[in-house]
Structure formats: C-alpha cells, structure tokens
Amino acid sequence: MGQYTWAPLPNVAVNTNGQRFDDVFFLNANVGWAANGYYAAVYKTIDGGDNWTLQTNNTVLGSNHYFRNIEFLDENIGFLGTLNGKFYRTTNGGTSWDLVTINPNPQAICGLDCVGPSTVYGCGAYFFPAYIIKSTDSGQTWEYIDMSAYADALVEVLFLDENTGFAAGNNATGAVVLKTVDGGQTWSILYNGTISGEYVWKLQVLTGNPNIIFGAVEAAAPNNGTLIKSIDGGQTWVVKNAPEPEIQAVGFVDENTGWMGGHATGFYQTTDGGDTWVNTTVGSNLNRIFIMSPTLAYACGTTIYKMTPSMAIPQFTEQPRKPLQVTIAPMPITNKLQIEITFLGVDHLNLGLYDQQGKRITTLLIDEINGAGKKEYSFDFPYTDGVYYLNLHTNTGRQSVKIVK
Prior knowledge:
Elements: E1 5-8, E2 21-26, E3 32-36, E4 41-45, E5 53-57, H1 58-61, E6 67-72, E7 78-82, E8 87-90, E9 98-99, E10 111-115, E11 119-124, E12 131-135, E13 143-146, E14 153-159, E15 165-170, E16 175-180, E17 188-192, E18 199-205, E19 213-218, E20 226-230, E21 238-241, E22 247-252, E23 258-262, E24 268-270, E25 278-279, E26 288-293, E27 296-300, E28 304-308, E29 325-328, E30 336-343, E31 347-355, E32 360-369, E33 373-380, E34 387-394, E35 397-404
C-alpha cells in the first residue's frame, strides 16, 4: 500500500465476539488512551502504543457501561463519554474517574473535542435527541445546548478553536453537517443529505488546511455509504461512494490519500481522493482514524492500529462482528410485523423501516434495552405488498434484515 503501512499494535486487548474499541486519542506521539466500547475499558500508553496499561473498567466504576469516546485537554484532565447516561472526568491522567453532573443529564455522549487550554465540547446522541454540552473551565461546570432546531441526532463534534467548529449527525432530511462561529450559540447547515436515516458519523479537517474537510456518511442497506469532501471550508461539497454501506471512520493525510472503515467492514485505502478503494486487510470494525501527521496515525477497531512508514505487519486474525439474532415470523408478513430480537447486553435500539430502494419510510421504535435477552415487538404493517428492509441501529452497529409482504 505504498509508503503508508498500518499494523495492529501489540500488548493491547483484542476484542472477542466482534466487538471493538470505539475511540483512540493521542495527546502527542507517546501519550495516548483507548476506550473499549462493549467491554467498557480504558487503556493508556506512554510509549506510542508499544505497551498499554488498563486504567478503568466496569468493575472499577461499579456499573454497566458502553464507552463511546475519550478525549484529553492535557496529560491530567480528560473526559470519557458513555452511551449509558453517564459522563466522566479525570484530573490525574486517567488513574481515577469522577462522575460529571450536567442538567439536564445527557442520555449519551457520542462525540468529544477539547480545544484551547480549557474548552471542551461534547454531543449526542445517535439515538436522539440532539444536544451539545460545553465547558470553558476544564470541565468543572457545563452548559447544555438543545440542538433540536438543527438536528435529530448528533454523533460528532469538531472545533477549530474555542468559537468555530462543526457538529455532525442527521436530521429529518438526512445526514447533516453544522457550523458555529460563536461557540455553539447559533448554527448553520453546511451539508444536508437527501436520504433519511443516514448520518455523517465522523469528520476530519485536514492537518494544515482548515478549508479541506472530510466526512464519513453511514448508510443503511441497500444504500451505500459515502465520502463527502469540501475544499472551501464547507461551503460546497463533493460526494463519492464509500467502500461499504456501514462506513463510520475517515482519515486523510493529504487530499488524495486516506482511509475509511466501519462496523463489520474492511480497512480501506484510497490514493485518488476516494474515487477507488482497496482493502488493506490489516483490520476491521473501525470507528475512528486519528491522524497526527502525514507519517503518524492511529485507528481503533477490533484492536488499536498504528500507521508509520516503517511499521512491520505482524500476523493477526480478527473475528468478524456477529449480528444480532433477529427472527421475523410469519414470513412473508401480512398486516402485522412480528419481531424477536436477542440482545447481547445493555443497548439502545433505533428500528427503522426502509423500502426496496433504500428510502426510509418511518422509525418504528426507539427503545432502551436494559440487559441481555430476547425482546418481542409487534407493529401494524399497512403497506403495499413488496420487499422492505428493517434496519436495526444499536450501540454495536447497524444491520438490515430483508422482509417481504
């Protein structure tokens, strides 16, 4: 793959059951943290990822969590977002974590960004509603900003400085990118897709050029994911096909060379700005690609990956992500849709119905799942005979199930 070589790092956990690390953050070339999602664990490295130390997990915190993201202001002050209505702050580099109180309490923190010496932004939630949280005193006090006027769900927040930044997710029309120049008090829409149910899942501003912005648009089958790109700070956008539907992570080192990946997908590279993609076969299940420089980057998926020009590639076998077990009976359906879903643990369910062309018809249900086990759902189905897709969006990914009436 040319001069850019990715490899899984040693001495850090490798997920089983197809789960993943949801986030990785590096303060500098040596000091970084990784947040494991489903297995809820934080690891720290001080040698560029060669060795990792477990800092906290469910046992330490005494609760059941799904860790979504991790971000630090400096070597001491950092923040840990979860999908379980809890948000944490550390003042000792991650050795211990304290619960943060915000009113109203966010249901989940899906995106975090620290900017400047003391400003922190967060956003949520992928399963609705849309809000921003903001602190200007290193996380001691917080402001909650209702974003329902601009979006239905927010997944990513990315700031250029304390006042100017972006938020991304979706609204009723489709995937959306928003911009603020006044610290989050007002927002304008820079990009809005036209396929309901799609999300702008991750954003990247190219290092050294704030006018070049990349976005990963996550789709639901049968639609394909897309790469969106702007070279004028978000005023206009080019849309290109991504390698697979469930694309979430994006990272470029220049205008032409970059990578994408997502839940249960490969780890893809482009050298022509996204016109074509090749699977590197290095890893899978990506949620973030963290670009530090043209010669150093990290990514999180089934494990943690590192890119340097001289990286050696060890032998490594990953387990594919296992989809949720979904039973629909009877099939074909008639006037009722009867669904049984087996959940692996605490989760959220956003259940959408799509037609054969991939157009979202409706959201059938948004449900909070309290633990592992089976749940049954029943819906009236007053639609014409034909083929439909049921899309399950949960903490651990998206999957589509074909149904016939």
